[in-house]
Amino acid sequence: MKKVIIIGGGIAGLSAGCYCQMNGFESEIYEMHDMPGGLCTGWRRKNFTFDGCLHWLVGTSPSNPMYRMWEELGVVKGKKFFDYDYFIKVIDKEGNVFFTYTNPDRFKEQMLEYSKEDRKFICSVIKDIKWFMKMKIPIDYGFFTLFKMIPMFYRFWKYSMPVSEFAGKFKNKKLGELVNLAFDWHDMSAVFLIWTLAYMGSRDAQYVMGGSIELAKSIEQRYLSLGGKIHYKSEVIKILVKNNKASGIKLNDGTEIQGDIIISAADGYSTIYEWLGGLYTDKKLDKKYKTLEPFPPLLYISIGVEGNYRKEPYSVTFPLDKPVLIANKEVEYISLANKSFDPSLSANNTTAFHLSIPTDYDYWAELYKDKTTYLQEKERIANEIIEGITKLYPDFKSQVREVDVATPVTFKRYTGNYRGSYEGWLLTKKSMTVQMPKTLRGLSDFYMAGHWTAPGGGLPTAASTARQAVKLLCRHNKIKFSTTTV
Fold first, then answer.
1. Residue-wise pLDDT tens digits, 430-454
2. Coil/strand/helix, residue 463
3. Residue 168 and residue 29 share a domain
4. Strand pairing partners for 358?
5. Does residue 421 carry a pLDDT above 70?
6. How far apart are CA 36 and CA 47, in angstroms?
7. What's the domain count of the chain?
8. pLDDT, tens digit, for every residue of 79-137?
9. What is the rounded CA–CA span in Å between residue 452 and residue 157?
10. Poorest-confidence range of 230-234, 284-288, 456-460?
């Protein structure tokens, strides 16, 4: 039985471990943190649980082929799900209110309320959303499968432009501004808009009650039940190579562990350019890592309040009366997530809120050198944000009981992800057709999985790339890939 060493105990690493165990390999996971999940995580602060990842999970409907993958990983068994009626509520500076309903017909009527002149374009968009609602993306690919997906690829290209460009296609400028406020995220492709609404509309992108921690623990328990082993607080600093064959890992305490096969489900930059010293790359791969855009680093602010906000929007974008200066840039709008619908996060008349603000990694990395100034800046920003939220909820400031601010440096410290990015490659027009390798040229018995091996990010990407990597591993070892479900 060959021994597989897996670097990283996030969703990709845990999933890779599960599939290795299902296919007769002996696997061990080495994770730098003291808990499973990687970027799919949460944390306790006194009486509050702050969730750092989960908004929705694609593949929660049994009709979706991806549901089978979640069954294999133990994610959906015994779980309860929450359906979103809308993606987000938007309030602009003039007080206009706009709901991005997940029911396509309601969304159509909402848009038409602002612009009858855009009826033709609106109807075309809604038609494509309904088409995507019927489209089920397989987890196992073949020639005929890809052939059937040609219409989907056409629509992917149709909406490959940034959301801001898509929003500019509306004749009514106000409607365009509202759509942009609702969906624009660091030049993300408009496919994100169409696809997300389609999945939510078909009840195939629901929130998993219990949040990120419970989801990660479910896969961890599945892995352990299959006979896998996890080593926490075990940070990898080098991948050992002998005769161009991956042969083990070295930990930060100097310990060396030997293995027959290595799977890195960790940060792509660290894997290729640090742990392997950049010895197994080429011009094409270097160009991708230099030119593709990662998901932006975040300032992630979590706020625990004493108060029941169950009747308030679970996601709302609104303008601040006074812009907040963050990393030398003024922030005029914030998007506030309200997790009061999950009693595991918001119980006993309390509510956990959080907001994500794209920011600059270098600014925070430099500030971190002076811990006092770093902490003072976090506190200042949190206080100004809380003050800004009182525009929406006048009693909010007096109800605050706990505040936590995670910077890009926090993300880097706990996950090792490149420049504090919270996922991998951003889904843009440029990255949409890019294929990232799961092996490296010239290095045998080595595989990669996770966000850095496929643009788009998200939990399905993490799990499915792990599944693909182990399937490739099986092929190379002349083993028929097989799975079981729970």
1. 888 888 999 999 999 999 999 999 9
2. helix
3. no
4. 298
5. yes
6. 21
7. 3
8. 999 999 999 999 999 999 999 999 999 999 999 999 999 999 999 999 999 999 988 87
9. 22
10. 456-460
Beta sheet of 256-258, edge-to-edge order: 236-242, 245-251, 256-258
Q: Are strands 298-306 and 86-91 parallel, antiparallel or unpaired?
A: unpaired
As a dihedral over the C-alpha atoms of residue 437, residue 438, residue 443, residue 445, rounded to 10 degrees, the angle is -160
Task: Please report whether residue 259 resides in a domain.
Answer: yes
Three-state secondary-structure class, residue 414 = helix
Report residue 182 as tokens. Answer: 């609702």
- Structural domain span for residue 10: 3-43+63-75+209-293+424-476
DSSP 8-state secondary structure symbol assigned to residue 275: I
Between CA 73 and CA 218 the distance in angstroms is 8
End of a domain among 161, 182, 202? 202
174 contact partners, CB below 8 Å, separation of at least 6: 96, 114, 115
Q: Say what the pLDDT of residue 346 is.
A: 79
Say if residue 467 is exposed, middle or buried (CB neighbours under 10 Å; 0-12, 13-18, 19+). buried
CA distance 216 to 132: 28
Q: Where are the beta strands (DSSP E) in 342-418?
A: 350-358, 400-406
Paired tokens of 96: 């206009």
Q: How far apart are CA 37 and CA 430, in angstroms?
A: 29
Give the sheet arrangement for strand 229-231, strand by strand.
Answer: 229-231, 26-30, 3-7, 261-264, 446-448
Percent of the chain at pLDDT exceeding 90: 88
Instruction: List the structure tokens of 218.
Output: 């479910």
* Best CA proximity match to 268, nearest among 437, 445, 443: 437
Residues 428 and 374 in one domain: no
CA angle 318, 84, 208 (to 5 degrees): 115
401 and 252 in a single domain? The answer is no
Give pLDDT tens digits for 257-308: 999 999 999 999 999 999 999 999 999 999 999 999 999 999 999 999 999 9
pLDDT, residue 432, reads 81
Q: What pTM did the predictor assign?
A: 0.94
Q: Which amino acid is at 304?
A: G
Tokens matching residue 276: 């392997």
Query: Which residue bears the tokens 């961890």?
Result: 220
In this predicted structure, the answer to whether residue 12 has a pLDDT above a threshold of 70 is yes
Cβ atoms 264, 271 nearer than 8 A? yes
Q: With contact defined as beta carbons under 8 Å apart, do 124 and 102 qualify?
A: no
